[in-house]
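=== RUN LOG ===
request id: a7f3
mode: sequence -> structure
chains: 1
length: 326
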Amino acid sequence: MKKRHVIYIVESGGLCGGVRVILEQLNYLRNRGWHVEVYSLDQSRPNWFPLRADIPWWRFESYSHMARHLIQRDAIKVATWWKTAFPVAESSKDGEGFYLVQDIETSYYTQPAMKEQVEKSYDLGLTAYTTSHWVEENLPGCEYVGIGIDQNLYRPLDIQRQLNAVLSCGRPQLLKGWTDHCEVYRRLRQTQQFALYQFGVMGAALPYANVLPRGIPDEELVRWYNRSGIFISTSLHEGFSLTLLEAMACGAIVICTNADGNMQFCENGVNSIVTEPGQPQQIVEACVNLLENPEQLLALQAGGLETAKQWPWEPVIDRLEALFCG
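=== RESULT ===
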């Protein structure tokens, strides 16, 4: 297998699930002997993820500046966000341009002009690959590679679990169901049955929850997954929803909405409780009912743990290597 240089092009290295996937791919490829680099627009090397020290991280002033450097490189060039697809296409010869599509990003915009620009990025002739079966099904020509979790990190610990402790990832965005998220916490607080906790990437605070420090280390987040009985999500749409799988791997019960991409692994009544988007009371009732049904709680926990075992990284990187080698 001929291992070429690989350059991932990112807009930023900020804390989010999509960037985590990129950094995981970089580490695994480097571990297998690939020479990998990052071209970044506006973010210095992230300090929240253990990216290997021997992976160069280059910062550029603009996409045009980046493209001028990329065109000189004999390497595989991987776009990771719709805006990064244009400099990759501009600077790639045949067989060089790839596009990691973790979600169909028209979902993030309401303006027709912005949606049109996103759609153009999918027609630039790049080899598109995805972490999500939902994307594969809805974006013709996009090849499924998959996604994984670090199963040495995300696992049950010998920690006392508080079954009435509810944890969530707070993301104040319309697409993530932020209004419903706030309403779920308000109603759960009124029941006086639950201890409410939230972590997040934007410093969003709820008056009804104990907000964990922004950007807590992965090891501490794993402990919170293990301390919590329930993990909730109110998203209207997800390309995948990595936090749900992480919570399952640590033994928390997932109560979520049907948000498209998460239905790749969430199975109602087997490993999670799945509600309809925009119905916060359904999540509230599911939380209350779960505390009254310990047998269901144990069954869902077992189902979630079994599901999480099916998502290792190694087969994903096998498929990624095969794609890069053509």
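=== NOTES ===
The two ends are 10 Å apart (CA to CA).
The mean pLDDT is 94.
=== END ===
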